[in-house]
Amino acid sequence: MNSTSDQTMTRIGADSLPVRWDAVSLMYHDVIRERPDESGYLVPGSAQYKLTVERFREHLVAIAELTDHAPVVATGSTRPASTSATSGVAPFAMTFDDGGSSAYSIIAPMLEEYGWRGHFFVATEHLGTERFITAQQAIELHERGHVIGSHSHSHPERFSSLDPASQVAEWATSTATLSDLLGVAVEVASVPNGYYTPAVARAAAQAGIRLLFTSEPTVRSHQVAGCTVAGRFSIQRSTTASVVVALVGANPFYRLRQGYAWGAKKAVKRVGGEFYLRARDSILRRTD
User: Fold this and answer.
1) Which of 14, 33, 69, 263 could form a disulfide with 78 if both were Cys (CB 3.0 to 4.6 A apart)?
2) Are residues 109 and 46 in contact, defined by beta-carbon separation less than 8 angstroms?
3) Half-sphere exposure in the Cβ direction for 44 (13 Å, CA)
4) Chain centroid to CA 181
5) Residue 41, CB half-sphere, CA atoms under 13 Å: how many?
């Protein structure tokens, strides 16, 4: 395995143009020691996004063996730019949704063993509540070089179904809370539950967000109203280290495969609406 000292963390700054984020962004949630109720949300389907410590360790070891390059990081109030693949490995980023307590107790320390930093997206309504990080922990993560971003305020089930004013309010409340807490402008966010439309990005831009991560598995970013919209590749508890390596590697096969599956799912979600949610929850209750 490559030594930590060999790995250089890449930070993307405001003076780097053009404003793009063409990286393989991995979308994680929680990491648990034994039980799903240790960290984060307890809703139908949430358990499938909670990796064990052992599985997450396998992912980190495999990536570190693949490349000397650390994840790219959008820092503080900076704006991301494109980077170039080196040694046959795509630029990659580590992102973690929800702000579960494992962000502070497990994930960040494990990343730091490699000299890496991640993006932690927090639904601010849950700051300091059971199974979520506290305000002080968010400050400490920020001071240790991790990116603290918005995951909305209340984590709506279907963000894209909110009216425009409510969407702006969700982003603005969350970013204002985090900015006041951290003492820097928070301009990075991720969309909860994958319910993204261009209107969601326009609302984010209106609230001052400059980089918005979605759940769409793509390495291509684009601009909406001055906001850079970037996709991510979903990692679940069943995702093996070999799949993660394939996602980060130069061969696009696994990235394309996840993209095709997402496209089909997105069409069903759009047509099914509330019926899709009820059917999904019914199935997930039986599989959790």
Assistant:
1) 14
2) no
3) 12
4) 20
5) 20
- In angstroms, rounded to a whole number, what is the distance separating the alpha carbons of residues 262 and 196? 13
One DSSP character per residue, 217-275 reads: --S--EEETTEEEE--EE--TT--HHHHHHHHBS--HHHHHHHHHHHHHHHHHHHHHHH
Concatenated DSSP letters for 19-54?
Answer: B---SEEEEE-EEESS-GGGSS--STTGGGGEEEHH
Helix (H) or strand (E) run with residue 174 in it: helix 164-182
| Angstrom distance (rounded) from CA 173 to CA 124 | 8
Site of tokens 């696994």? 254
> pLDDT digits over 204-248, tens only?
999 999 999 999 999 999 999 999 999 999 999 999 999 999 999
Residue 91 corresponds to which tokens in the numbers above? Answer: 């630029």
- At 11-20, the pLDDT tens digits run 444 443 237 8
